[in-house]
Amino acid sequence: MLALAAGATVAAFAGPTPVPAAAPPPVPAPAQGPAIASGPTAATGASGLAVSQDGYTLDVLAAPTQAGSPGELAFRVLSPGGTPVTAFTPTHDKPMHLILVRRDQSGFQHLHPVMDPDGTWRTTTALAAGDHRVFADFAPDGRSEAMTLGRDIAVAGDYRPVPLPPPSTTATTADGYTVTLTGALVPGTASPVTLSVSRNGAPVTDLQPYLAAYGHLVALRTGDLAYLHVHPTGSPGDGRTPAGPAIDFLAEVPSAGPYRLYLDFAHQGVVRTAEFTVVAASNPGTPVSATSGHSESSAPHGH
Ligand SMILES: [Cu+2]
């Protein structure tokens, strides 16, 4: 994607460090545990907590190992039969969405790797020191719903964890955009959330389509990085969805407590990310946040 083009030009990956590929673990029966832990879960919307689900396994073949040094991230999705999946149904315009975030919820990246014919997905990225969560969000051919598998990768270096920023309804980007969040996250409910984009105080009304919408929102639960599916409620060209300043979503979170929201939006040819901390509360009257302040958007590390 556009914002990452610079990083992708970095040269030669010095040598993949293979991450041991575990044999696909047995698929837990849905009844064995809480739905949010095993993840299929239309009911809860939480996923990304397991490296293997419904027989599909995320097999990471190579990942950057040193802080700040661009390296290749390569992975496969193994099918229930153990062979790599090579056919995917695009969701949100792409056959594979790769989300990277450090376990402290900083350093969010949303990448679209390219697949080799044998089913190996590859991209290049640089990561800060620490443990990072890798999420692969995809729909294998023949399966109607997307699924998200996740696993950790370790990056050596001087790890300085970043505290979760306080809740805020406003986020700013480094280049002058302000995004305002309205709505409340109510556990177990498809909660309307609206994000409004302005720049230098003026509403932005010419957002560009990005991933079949005017914005793409990822929500990660603080504490375990459960990955929540968030759906835009309108799409470009449907005759009723304006190109900003407001972008409407339905977000369903499984439990009360803090979440980090990452909004990707495109304007004037550049994809930007605005981040928010939001506390979900069962009382629908509870405001999204009680404190002021703002969170800085982060460009992907190393760019
Ligand atoms: Cu994507």
Automatic annotation (TrEMBL):
Biased composition (Low complexity): 32-44
Keywords: Signal
Signal peptide from the UniProt entry: 1-21
Keyword Signal appears in the UniProt entry: yes
Region annotation Disordered: where it falls in the sequence: 24-44, 284-303
The protein's name: Secreted protein
Source organism: Actinomycetospora rhizophila
Lineage: Bacteria, Bacillati, Actinomycetota, Actinomycetes, Pseudonocardiales
